[in-house]
Amino acid sequence: MRAVWLREFGGPEVLVAGEAPDPVPGTGQVLVGVAFANTTFVETQFRAGLPGPFRAELPVIPGNGVGGVVLSGPSELVGAPVVTSLNGSGGYAERVVVDAAAPFRVPDGLALDDAVALLADGRTATALVRAAGVSAGERVLVEAAAGGVGSLLVQLARNAGATVIAAAGGARKTAVARDLGADEVVDYTEPDWTARVDGPVDVVFDGVGGALGAAAFGLLRRGGRHFSYGLASGSWTEVPEEEAAARGVTLHRGPLGSPADLRAATEWVLAEAAEGRVKPLVGQRFPLAQAAEAHRAIESRATIGKTLLEI
Questions:
Q1: pLDDT in tens, 123-135
Q2: What SS3 class is residue 246?
Q3: Pick from 204, 237, 252: which residue ends a domain?
Q4: Looking at the domain assignment, is residue 135 inside a domain?
Q5: What's this model's pTM, rounded to 2 decimal places?
């Protein structure tokens, strides 16, 4: 089968298309013919050899999320469109093998590529909104609002009845955030961006970290909640705990629930998308053989929403 190999850590160019043995399912497993593979910022860090949630011995086929059709396994699953996470590797390929209990059936009314775009980002956004307890009338600031998770947070917070302030970088991304339905939009590449936010906020969803995340923290009202879930800037937001305590601000950075909670969140957001209440933003698509270009685009910060590989 066709696949993309990572044989050494480094820049995007170390991702090289080639051949790999077809995986063979064992007892209790299914074989999935892959149509789309998810790509994430975390995977670019893994490729570069930086610390992160994934560990693997080289050479390896990277990729942690795919969507396709079940080719073999239990009869009730064969032929079904599914999305599934892997164990941190194997996704940039034409076929994958997973435990039969792992895949999510794609609901009727939801396109397979949209389902793949929701697999990681949808469960993260859902779990964040639930953990934060976003409610009607609250003011919620979403960083990186034109990104994969951010674009979904804008929609989910709005659906919960909150007023959403979308923070994004540059005219193109702020326009996307506005089209998503954000109530206020600010460009955080401008030095005075926090002054353009119309009043304090109750919740900050911080997917950027660094100085930008710290600036967003400063916008929280007393008793607010700050949820850090990403470090697109290269570092987590550093907020002194004593300062947060003095303002009664709750800081959260860590797991967003048990595996069962995250599975339930995935099932819920797939169903919401099938009903048209949330729509993932797929901004870029690359052929499998151009996985290096996909990584390069993500690292350039030029991408909008989710980046998929088409197989």
A1: 999 999 999 999 9
A2: helix
A3: 252
A4: yes
A5: 0.95
